[in-house]
Design a protein that fits this description.
The protein has helices at residues 6-31, 33-43, 60-69, 82-89, 132-141, 161-173, 194-201, 221-231, 234-240, 244-259; strands spanning 50-54, 74-79, 100-104, 119-123, 148-154, 205-218, 262-263, 266-279. It is α/β, with parallel strands linked by helices. It has a domain at 6-157 and 184-214 and 273-279: Vaccinia Virus protein VP39 (Rossmann fold). Strands 1, 2, 3, 4, 5, 6, 7 and 8 form an eight-stranded mixed β-sheet that branches. It is globular.
Length: 284
């Protein structure tokens, strides 16, 4: 197991997510719409707000925020991967929604003025950052006093089976791919109290968290396998790094486990997300 290098990890992440942009957009569009709407409701984005979407990916949360901010507001969507930005920016403008600007930018070092947004959010980004504390502090820095900073992350490994089924199978068949000490993991912020601690450390106040649990339905075990392995970024890269023989064994493991979750005409895979919202301190 090698030591964790944040700079190398960040550079690799840019390449991985750049290559995965189109595949991830297909998966997230089909699955994450209702979750996104619950997240935006939790944040409380209002008409006329200036909103920052950090690690915007294909722009699902950006567009949801734009609808809530309306034409009177504005949205800046940033992502480390140029491919994600290009894909998100190619989507047609929404009627009666805020204009969205897309820019390539590292969440851990936002090239933006202090207090320039009414709200900052990140959907499924925080647990992927090499320096999540730095990203949270940057989101707080660019949010005006009293404005919300909010993140949605994957929940507990035991409850987020949507990703855990395949991650556990990969590590079981290829133990050398286990994350080194200090590296990001999908479930780093899923346990009780972790997000609250990190938000407090970032000097955010009035912190509130909420769990979202539910079921993703797939037409077959193969549909689940294809959706996740084709749509994921780093998970897909991990699989591709393995021999065809090991990949085949992992796929067989997943198809077998997914088949046990068939309910009538669907395969039902549980998910759990955690949302956190904190306010930027008001200067008195």
């Amino acid at each position: 197991m090698t030591d964790f290098d944040p700079e190398t990890y960040t550079a690799d992440s840019q390449k991985i997510w750049n290559a995965a942009a189109a595949r991830y957009e297909k998966m997230s569009s089909s699955l994450f719409g209702p979750v996104t709407e619950e997240f935006l409701e939790f944040i409380g984005v209002r008409k006329g707000w200036r909103v920052l979407d950090v690690a915007c990916g294909p722009g699902i949360a950006s567009r949801a925020a734009a609808r809530r901010a309306t034409q009177k507001g504005s949205v800046l969507a940033v992502d480390l991967a140029p491919g994600m930005i290009e894909l998100a920016a190619s989507r047609p403008a929404q009627k009666r929604a805020a204009p969205i600007e897309y820019r390539v930018m590292d969440a851990q070092k936002l090239e933006l003025p202090d207090a320039s947004f009414d709200a900052a959010l990140s959907q499924l980004g925080l647990m992927l950052f090499a320096r999540p504390d730095a990203a949270l502090c940057e989101m707080r820095r660019v949010t005006a006093p009293g404005g919300p900073v909010a993140c949605l992350v994957q929940g507990r490994r035991s409850a987020m089976l949507f990703t855990a089924l395949i991650m556990d199978a990969i590590v079981s068949r290829a133990p050398h791919l286990k994350s080194p000490q200090g590296a990001p993991t999908l479930y780093a912020f899923g346990s009780d109290g972790i997000l609250e601690e990190r938000f407090t450390r970032a000097n955010l106040t009035e912190i509130v968290t909420k769990r979202l649990a539910g079921i993703f339905r797939f037409s077959s075990p193969e549909d689940y396998w294809n959706t996740l392995t084709e749509g994921a970024g780093r998970t897909s890269a991990m699989l591709r790094s393995l021999s065809p023989e090991i990949q085949a064994k992992i796929k067989a493991d997943i198809l077998r486990r997914a088949a046990k979750r068939r309910v009538r005409s669907f395969v039902e895979i549980p998910y759990e997300f955690v949302m956190a919202r904190g306010l930027t301190p008001v200067i008195r």
